[in-house]
Amino acid sequence: MGRPSIKAERTAEILNAYEQCVARFGIEGATLERVASQAGLARALIRHNVGNRDALFDALVERFFDVSEQRVVDLIAALPERDRAPVLIDILFDVRHGNDTHVLVAEALIAAAADRPALAKRMKNWIDDFVSAIAAVLRHSYPDAAQGRVTAVATGVTGIYFNVDSLAMLGGMTDLRRNSKEAALLLVCTLED
C-alpha cells in the first residue's frame, strides 16, 4: 500500500502562503520565492503541487470566489427570521466578522482585473451577487418597499461596507466603522417610508 498523498494539504498550505503574500505585496510582489519562504517550502514544491505563477494565480482566484460565496451563504444563514436587516448591518460592520487578508486579496484582484477582462467580469459579478444578497435580506425585511429603492439601498450599504473594510487595515478606524454602520442603518431606514 502506497503512502497517502499530501498534495491537497500541501496545496492548501501554499495557497494560504500565497494569500498572505498577495495581501502584503500585491499580485506582482507575491513572487514564488516569497510564497516559498512564507510556506516554509522549497520553490520546487510550489511548482510541483500548484504549478507556475499563472497556475498559482488561477488557484487563488478560484479559492477567493469559493470562500466569498461561502461567507455570504453563512452570513445569510446566520440571520434570524425577524429583524434581519439590522442584524445584517450589525454583522457587516462588526470587526469580529472581518477578514483582513480576504479584503486585501479582494483589493489586489480588483487591481489585477484592470489587465484581465475575464477577471474583471468575474469581479463585477461578485459585487453584483453581493448586492443581490443584501437586497434579498432587505426585501424580506421591507416587503412593501419599491424594488428600485431596495436595490439602491443595498448598493449603498455595499459601498459603505466595502469602503470601511478597505480602510480597516490602517488601524484606529473605530469611529469610521461606528459612523459607517450608523449611516448604513439610516439608509436602510429609508425603506420604511
TrEMBL record:
Keywords: DNA-binding. The lineage of its organism: Bacteria, Pseudomonadati, Pseudomonadota, Alphaproteobacteria, Hyphomicrobiales. The keyword DNA-binding applies. This is TetR/AcrR family transcriptional regulator. Residues 31-50 bind DNA. Residues 8-68 form the HTH tetR-type domain. Pfam families: TetR_C_31. It comes from the Bacteria.
